[in-house]
Task: structure prediction
Amino acid sequence: MPTPQTTDNHIKAVNLKMREDTRALIDRAAQMQGRSRTDFMIEASRRAAEDAILDQTVISVNADTYQRFLAILDAPPQSNEKLRQTMQATPLWEKK
Result:
């Protein structure tokens, strides 16, 4: 049975124990971004959680669709002016 949507966005405390050097590293990074430790840790944790979930996302397709997908990946790119310009441009790491 589905659960009803809730608008309960109450803030809940999370207590963490960590090594001093880890805390100092987090504090340094947060300060460099002009953020509080809490804000920095919440954002970093949220991003890591989203990445972990997305890494486990499976997209299922039938065999024919999968074969067409592989054919597109294996096909050479179609020549176009923008691609030509990109391939002839000096890489950023070689610019002075």
Summary: Residues 20-89 form one domain.
